[in-house]
Specification:
The chain has 398 residues and is of the alpha/beta class. It contains twelve helices and 13 strands. The chain starts with a strand and ends in a 6-residue tail after the last helix. Bound molecules: pyridoxal-5'-phosphate (PLP). Pyridoxal-5'-phosphate (PLP) is lined by residues 77-79, 82, 107, 109, 154, 158, 189, 191-192, 212, 223, 337.
């Protein structure tokens, strides 16, 4: 069980939205909010103490993610990393062309950045995905033209958990890039993967990667963008020249230290956690699909984040399911957190071919390291009971 507020069990199953910060990260951060409060740019000892912590964290993170330490740029989180990657590459590559390729299922941080660039004269191709949410490598190849400068494809989807074949895509892009005679920058939003899946930046072959600490039990408001050496990049934030001129602003030292601690532990515990989470994830999928008629799994069965379950149900509203679960002390999501306040059906579910009505019934359950089998048994019991009850209400009937 996750926690108990004295009134019964509380089960948090919304880890794709955010995770509880782990105590080791919190403890590592505290000194940098109190005694070690210096600005890393100051040359005195208090400043240099902070500089050392930032350098050590950068070194640790780069080793954990298979990058050079000079390639790590600290940002305020996934949204900033995505914005910086898309606009930074598009601006820097303008003399080679104005065409960007992305997919219809990206996070809004990517989609809205691309839409903004369209208003400034860039051309964007939004690739479709198949019913499982997979991008077709042939579609990527066929979309490339002489003016293509940037391709942004997420590593795993935040709503339906589908994992894309990024390395294979990069191989094809590099061949095409040789044909057209200039570099095509490849960015991947790995916000849902870092901490959960093994990441080796160098061997994946991409040029830029976004990550966010609060998705792997680190603090909120800190993230990173890895920018491969020599990748053309125009910074979004300019000023004091921090982060080797790629992201100005006084560094969030406690955040950086907390993020590196959280990532270190997430990587150490990754295999063990994933084994348990995959078992629990499959248990939910199997039991719900078998006990609730006309329920459907969204996303790919195999190429799927270990902690993601995304379901749709005939003849029920996702918001009503969420409220019912909330009443029972279970916290999940109807889609991505960012769109949960909107009544629009999810763009991801529409892209995989769900009808508007079915998309409105979506439920995302995302597990975490503290999720236990009793939580899942309770969830399955409550959820299947809830849906049967909702469907038997006159208003829900045909
Ligand atoms: N990209 C993906 C795939 C996400 O899931 C999220 C957050 O949900 C973001 C980007 C934005 O990250 P942040 O909340 O750190 O701004």
């Amino acid at each position: 069980m996750n926690s108990d507020d004295g009134n019964g069990k509380l089960i948090y199953l919304d880890h794709a939205s955010t995770t509880p910060m782990r105590s080791e990260a919190f403890d590592a951060m505290l000194p940098f909010m109190r005694s070690h409060f210096g600005n890393p740019s100051s040359i005195h000892d208090v400043g240099q103490q902070a500089r050392k912590a930032v350098d050590e964290s950068r070194e640790k993170i780069s080793t954990l993610l298979g990058a050079r330490s000079s390639e790590i740029v600290f940002t305020s989180g996934g949204t900033e990393s995505d914005n910086a990657a898309i606009k930074g590459a598009a601006f820097a590559m303008k003399s080679y062309g104005n065409h960007i390729i992305t997919t219809q299922i990206e996070h809004h941080a990517v989609l809205h950045s691309c839409q903004q660039l369209e208003r400034f004269g860039y051309e964007v191709t939004y690739l479709p995905v198949n019913v499982h949410g997979m991008v077709d490598i042939e579609d990527v190849k066929n979309a490339i033209k002489p003016t293509t400068i940037l391709i942004s494809i997420m590593m795993a989807n935040n709503e339906i958990g589908t994992i894309q074949p990024i390395s294979e895509i990069v191989e094809e892009v590099n061949l095409k890039s040789e044909e057209i005679g200039h570099k095509i920058i490849v960015h991947s939003d790995a916000v849902q993967c870092v901490g959960t899946l093994p990441i080796d930046f160098k061997s994946i072959g991409i040029d830029m990667l976004s990550a966010s600490a609060h998705k792997f039990q680190g603090p909120r408001g800190i993230g990173l963008l890895i920018i491969k050496r020599n990748t053309p990049f125009e910074p979004l934030l300019i000023g004091g020249g921090q982060e080797r001129d790629r992201r100005s602003g006084t560094e969030n030292v406690p955040g950086i230290v907390g993020m590196s601690k959280a990532l270190e532990l997430a990587v150490i515990e990754q295999n063990e956690n994933n084994k348990k989470t995959i078992y629990l994830r499959n248990k939910i999928i199997f039991e719900i699909l078998n006990s609730v008629e006309n329920s459907y799994l969204n996303g790919d069965t195999h190429n799927r984040l270990p902690n993601n379950v995304s379901l749709c149900f005939d003849k029920v509203e996702g918001e009503t399911i969420l409220l019912g679960l909330n009443f029972a002390g279970i916290f999940a999501s109807s889609g991505s957190a960012c769109s949960s306040a909107s009544i629009e059906p999810s763009h991801v579910l529409l892209a995989i071919g769900r009808s508007e009505e079915l998309a409105r019934s979506a439920l995302r359950i995302s597990l975490g390291a503290t999720t236990e089998i009793e939580d899942i048994d309770y969830l399955v019991q409550i959820l299947s009971g809830l849906i049967h009850k909702m469907r038997s209400m006159p208003i829900m009937a045909d």
